[in-house]
Design goal:
It is built from four helices and eleven strands; from the N terminus they run αααβββββββββββα. By secondary structure, the chain is of the alpha+beta class. The protein has a single domain (about 5-215), classed as Jelly Rolls (Sandwich), CATH 2.60.120. Strands 1-2-9-4-7 form a five-stranded antiparallel β-sheet, covered by helices on one side. The longest helix has 16 residues, at about 30-45. The protein is globular and about 45 Å long.
Length: about 220
């Protein structure tokens, strides 16, 4: 991603503070609790996000919209040098939702503009089959500006997020270390139970290129 000097000073200072604050914390619940206290202040910093959004429109070097991300509407704003967390922004058009999915880490997400919809799911089967699952909706939350939602890894955190508003909205999330070593997440079809692997567009291209090389 872009050099750290391109990051707005206010965001860089805040992320360095988070890095120092998270570093001595060993358990996931306390990491989530720390970010639940810290993230709302960032979510309400309209001046900062106006600056970031203008930079995207004007094609500035930061943020780098070409950095590897799992979703096409996701943009990396900061990666902790000691890999304790990453800060990411998602831009949602009207009516857009991501697939029902799990995560490789804990996370705390929140809304900068509009009202984010988060739908949580519960896995009802044993959870050992990576090809099929029985899941049902376990709860639905609407997150207005400044509010947060915590995400757990793997089967404990199956959910989808999206935008029921009539205009574009901004979501921001902090995600911890990858505890699985996977370069993909699982996507779930609630109707059929099918589980598929979801790779970042960049990772999928590299994977398919490796496979294609074997045939040449």
């Amino acid at each position: 991603m872009a050099h750290a000097l391109d990051i707005p000073d206010s965001l860089s200072c805040r992320c360095r503070r988070w890095s120092e604050g998270l570093r001595p914390i060993k358990d996931m619940g306390s990491c989530i609790g720390y970010m639940e206290r810290e993230l709302p202040e960032l979510l309400e910093d309209n001046d900062l996000f106006r600056e970031i959004l203008r930079a995207i429109v004007e094609r500035d070097s930061y943020p780098d919209i070409n950095t590897d991300t799992m979703f096409v509407n996701e943009i990396v704003l900061f990666r902790d040098p000691v890999r304790g967390f990453s800060l990411r922004m998602c831009l949602w058009g009207p009516g857009e939702y991501d697939p029902v999915h799990d995560h490789n880490s804990w996370g705390v997400i929140g809304t900068v503009s509009g009202c984010l919809t988060v739908v949580g799911y519960q896995r009802l089967d044993g959870g050992s089959d990576e090809r099929c699952a029985v899941i049902e909706e376990a709860g639905r939350e609407l997150l207005p500006v400044g509010c947060t939602y915590s995400v757990l890894p793997l089967n404990q955190g199956i959910h989808c997020t999206g935008n029921a508003d009539a205009s574009a909205i901004v979501q921001v999330g902090v995600y911890g270390k990858n505890i699985t070593g996977r370069n993909y997440i699982h996507a779930f079809d609630p109707a059929t139970g099918e589980i598929s692997r979801l790779y970042s567009p960049q990772a999928k291209k590299r994977m398919l290129a490796r496979q294609a090389l074997l045939s040449l």
